[in-house]
Amino acid sequence: MAAQIHNDLKQAREFLLNGDYARSLPVYERLVRQSPGAAVIWYEYGNAAFKCRQMELADRAWNKAVATEPHNAELVGMVGHQFDALRRPEAARACFLQAAAADPRGINPRISLAVNLEKNHRLAEARAAVNECLAIDPKDDQARYFTAVLDRREGQLQQAESRLRDLIASDPSHPFVRYAARYELAQVLDRTDRFDEAMILLKEAKEMVLALADARLLMRGYDQSAESIRRFTAAQPKNILDTWGKFFPLRKRETIPPLAFLGGHPRSGTTLLEQILDAHPGVAAVDESTAFLDVLQPEFHKSNELSSARVNVLRRHYIQALRDALPTDAADKMLIDKNPSPTARLPLWLRVFPELRVLIALRDPRDVVLSCYFQNIPLNSANVNFLTLERLAKHYADLMGIWLAVREWPGFAWIETRYEDIVADLPKEGRRVTEFLGLHWQPEQERFYEKSGSKQLYSPTYQDVTRPVYQRSVARWRAYEKHLAPILPVLEPFCRLWGYG
Fold first, then answer.
1. Closest to 183 (Cα-Cα) out of 339, 367, 372, 368
2. Strands 357-362, 413-418: parallel, antiparallel or unpaired by DSSP?
3. What does CATH list as the number for 237-497?
4. How far apart are CA 444 and CA 449, in angstroms?
5. Whole-number CA gyration radius for the chain
6. To the nearest whole number, what is the mean pLDDT of the chain?
7. How do 283-287 and 259-264 pair as beta strands?
């Protein structure tokens, strides 16, 4: 029996590692029956269920893992991170608290708790958690870094700068802290008008990131994918939506809730617009959903030819994935998927959802690129382009070039909205976009920040939408014009097209 369990566990883990989640699930189900006291198997069973989008099963399995070994701080902390991925911040927080209680000298669960609290705008509690870390080890890299983050969030810029300079001078051993401290200090310097020094620190941070991963391999992968998307889009006749509509006519479509996609290039004001719309009582907006990547994109990697029955299955799974990411019931509400990065894959959305309403956020391309350059976000095949201004300009042209092609296709409902127009007159532009969705403007949408400040957001810019709109980010690029000069020719056609002088 022991040998069989060992072999089954090895097989289940291979399935999980290779992304074959559906095949891993029944093996784990058999394993937990055979070894009900093995907490790590319950944990992995939950992971497999999560990947198969069986959220209730994942929840039960992870809770069983914690109940089986409640004093295993490492395991309980890992379950907490899975609840975070499931967009269950309260459950994640409970795990981090339990892990910290189980390990009185543990730094990691307390840092995880502090991060969770900060993202939920509970800054005083986050400060208490990070102070516990410093009491355990005053020299801990992560705790010193996060203390400075809290200083900056509380507006204590001078204190944040002092802490970050001391941290950088100490040459921290933690790889993330080494580059993240420079990103954070660059933010402080930007806020205090020391623009040249901010760019120096950003360059140092990005060189450190480049040294930690095979970024060039990621760039090659991105370039191949971008070229494939460009060729596919260019090859479609302008009436392609009519062709797809005949293949998947209204009579064959299962009914879904009203659905809109909110895209554009990252840092174009998508999060601000999403929060304004989400403040409407008839809207449920999903921030940085993974539904497209998890449900739609893998299917089209298998085949571009799908039956109507299969498309309806995808529609159901996609809608359920959006609902799973929402903290409350979204019945009878319009669903908005805000996710700028996959905007270049918009044809796939339109193939499955011919009724989709599309909102594209625009912003001065020079401000977009500069803002992206300041972001410290996890490295992947898209975000690797954020490591140099040249790659950022290319990424902008790639993504928005696809949009310019797709918007020429008749047969779908779309609107463009400019960040600068929202900042200049929120009720006017907000009303225009809201009415495009078939809804009436509501007064509470102008006070969107009241709702944003009471929930966890998943955009890297979650902090910026917890206060009223402000002018500081408009034409920010002018302070960095000499640094942007080499890429301005790439961006100039887009600036001209959208009226940015």
1. 372
2. parallel
3. 3.40.50.300
4. 9
5. 24
6. 91
7. unpaired
What is the 8-class DSSP label of residue 282? T
**Distance from CA of residue 196 to its chain's centroid?**
29
Length of the chain in terms of residues written = 501
Residue 170 pLDDT exceeds 70: yes
Round to whole Å and give the CA distance between 282 and 278. Answer: 8
pLDDT (tens digit per residue) in 463-495: 554 555 667 778 899 999 999 999 999 999 999
DSSP helix/strand/coil, 192: coil
Predicted model pTM: 0.91
What token pair was written down for 105? 């000298």
**What pLDDT score does 449 carry?**
79
pLDDT at 458 over 60: no
Domain boundaries, the chain: 2-150, 237-497
Q: Which residues pair with 415 in a beta bridge?
A: 359
CA 226 to chain centre: 20
Which token pair is 71? Answer: 């004093």
In this structure, are strands 283-287 and 357-362 parallel, antiparallel, or unpaired?
unpaired
Q: Residue 357 forms beta bridges with which residues?
A: 260, 413
What SS3 class is residue 173? coil
Transcribe 361-418 into DSSP letters. Answer: EE--HHHHHHHHHT------TTGGGGGSHHHHHHHHHHHHHHHHHHTTSSSSEEEEEE
**One-letter amino acid of 449:** Y
In this prediction, residue 256 has a pLDDT band, given cuts at 50, 70 and 90, of: very high
Given a cut of 90, whether residue 216 has pLDDT beyond it is: no
Cβ contact 295:313 at 8 Å: no
| CA separation, residue 118 to residues 124, 154, 291, 406 (Å) | 9, 11, 26, 39
DSSP helix/strand/coil, 359: strand
Cα(74)–Cα(274) distance, integer angstroms? 36
Cα angle 74, 79, 80 (rounded to 5 degrees) comes to 95
Position of tokens 């903290």?
A: 327
Q: Which long-range contacts (CB under 8 A, 24 or more apart) does 23-29 make?
A: 24/48, 25/49, 25/52, 25/54
359, 432 in Cβ contact below 8 A? no
CATH number of 2-150: 1.25.40.10
Considering only CA atoms, which of 269, 279, 287, 271 is closest in space to residue 423?
269
Coil, helix or strand for 178?
A: helix
- Other CB atoms closer than 10 Å to residue 332's CB: what's the count? 9
